[in-house]
From TrEMBL:
Source organism superkingdom: Eukaryota
Keyword Nucleotide-binding applies: yes
Name of this chain's protein: ABC transporter domain-containing protein
One of the record's GO cellular component terms: membrane
PANTHER family: ABC TRANSPORTER G FAMILY MEMBER 11 (PTHR48042:SF11)
Protein family per UniProt: Belongs to the ABC transporter superfamily. ABCG family. Eye pigment precursor importer (TC 3.A.1.204) subfamily.
Matches recorded under Pfam families: ABC2_membrane_7, ABC_tran
A molecular function GO annotation: ATP binding
Keywords, ordered alphabetically: ATP-binding, Membrane, Nucleotide-binding, Transmembrane, Transmembrane helix, Transport
Residues in ABC transporter domain copies: 54-297
Length: 305
């Protein structure tokens, strides 16, 4: 999708479409209908995950500051994530990680966006949200609900009404197993007044909620934020298993451990909105060494780069 977006002063919801699509290829009505049908067929009532490659090319993002000066957040960022792959977007605070993820998720409602986003080589369209789910950095859970109650309640709200009660319950049970929550399915979430799930379990529950709609593309913003090393490793382990189910997964992450860093299939390292590196974690060591920045022995590349 060739993206062009301008800021607006309207009071429309942030989820309202503000992007005008200018496709470089003219599609007839029949072609557009076939593309729409393909999107809908993928998301329907099937439990299989139709393989989708998400690619982005020359993504630029500009916002206007209070002084009306333009601020360039992203500069010609290009990358891709294929089915079965877990891709990490890394970089220091303010490098544009979350901004890029939000653009990929079609969640940006202001500023000017330019570039191309494709799903399986086709321009991303309004049906993209039928394929993709987004997990925010902050957990939004009801502390008085158990894990099982939370998922059943979420299934009532998010799963299509055409899905039978039996299929809906099957999705709940699958999500519990996929995120390793079986041992705590009857534990309350908890809050500041009641002890409940650990931070890592809450994060896995938030991800499990998004699995109920059977997304083929999963986008996660800082899924390990605020977690200790053991919980971080557990969360990424389960996310990596989800990718092996023919899903395409992209997440942002800040300074992962060396072990977690090498669990990703691809890493994109951003620096001040520019792409410093995109490729496999293993190849990143040789890449930066060739530029005169070798990672010192016994140093975590996730922190060093």
């Amino acid at each position: 999708m060739a993206l062009k977006q301008r800021s607006t002063s309207s009071n429309r919801s942030p989820f309202t479409k503000h992007v005008k699509i200018h496709s470089p290829i003219h599609h007839t009505t029949n072609t557009q209908q076939r593309m729409s049908s393909a999107y809908l067929e993928v998301k329907g009532d099937t439990s299989s995950h139709f393989p989708c490659t998400l690619s982005w090319e020359n993504i630029n993002y500009t916002v206007h500051g209070s002084t009306k000066d333009e601020k360039h957040i992203l500069h010609n960022v290009t990358g891709r994530s294929a089915p079965g792959q877990l891709t990490a977007i890394m970089g220091p605070s303010g490098s544009g990680k979350t901004t890029l993820l939000d653009i990929l998720a079609d969640r940006v409602s202001s500023g000017a966006i330019a570039g191309d986003i494709h799903v399986n080589g086709r321009p991303r369209d309004s049906h993209f949200r039928l394929l993709a789910s987004y997990v925010a950095q902050e957990d939004s859970l009801l502390g008085s609900f158990t894990v099982l109650e939370t998922l059943r309640y979420a299934a009532q709200l998010s799963v299509a009404s055409t899905v039978s009660a039996q299929e809906r319950e099957l999705r709940v049970q699958e999500a519990i197993d996929d995120m390793g929550l079986r041992s705590c399915e009857h534990t309350i979430v908890g809050d500041i007044f009641r002890k409940g799930l650990s931070g890592g379990q809450k994060r896995r529950l938030s991800i499990a909620i998004e699995l109920l709609s059977h997304p083929t593309i999963l986008l996660l913003d800082e899924p390990t934020s605020g977690l200790d090393s053991a919980s971080t490793h557990a969360v990424i382990t389960y996310i990596a298993k989800l990718a092996k189910q023919n899903r395409t997964i992209v997440c942002t992450i800040h300074q992962p451990s060396s072990m977690v860093y090498h669990m990703f299939d691809n890493v994109m390292i951003l620096a001040q909105g520019h792409t410093a590196y995109f490729g496999s974690p293993h190849d990143s060591l040789a890449h930066f060494a060739s530029l005169g920045h070798p990672c010192p022995q016994f140093t975590n590349p996730g922190e060093y780069f």
